[in-house]
Design a protein that fits this description.
This protein has 3 helices and 4 strands; from the N terminus they run E-H-E-E-H-E-H. The protein is α/β, with parallel strands linked by helices. The chain has a domain at 39-122: Rossmann fold. Helix 1 (47-59) links the parallel strand 1 (39-43) and strand 2 (63-67).
Length: 130
């Protein structure tokens, strides 16, 4: 695509400071394996999200099961549920809580924040993580 600028005579040009960095590998958080002594069920319709979760939680000491979809509250499950959604619009958190979730995090997943939230919810703390 070309943009016609017209004459640039007399226009002072700027030399950008271009820094080309080599790509760095993704940093995998390091957790203390004794943080989570619990079992985590990851329910998501996307396999990549489930796969990511099965990599995060065991590093923090949790056992992970995964499923594509479940009606947990209707099945009288009373454990903590954290909604993970790409929809960060206002009101989504309230809909998640009304649907029976204990808390809500938006994607992309922040592994440290997710582990912290699971740790709080599995230790009987009912306050929200800020």
């Amino acid at each position: 695509m070309m943009i016609r600028t017209g004459s640039i005579d007399g226009v002072e040009l700027v030399e950008p400071n271009v820094v080309i960095e080599s790509p760095t590998p993704a940093i995998t958080p390091v957790f203390d394996e004794s943080l989570l002594a619990c079992r985590v069920l990851v329910v998501d319709d996307r396999r990549d999200v489930r796969l990511l979760s099965t990599r995060i939680f065991p590093k923090a000491g949790a056992t992970v099961d995964e499923a594509e979809a479940e009606q947990l509250r209707a099945a009288e499950f009373d454990g903590p549920i954290i909604a993970l959604t790409a929809d960060a619009m206002q009101g989504v958190m309230n809909r998640c809580i009304e649907a029976g979730c204990n808390d809500y995090l938006s994607k992309p997943i922040n592994a440290e924040r997710l582990v912290q939230l699971v740790m709080q919810l599995t230790q009987g703390v009912n306050s929200r993580v800020v």
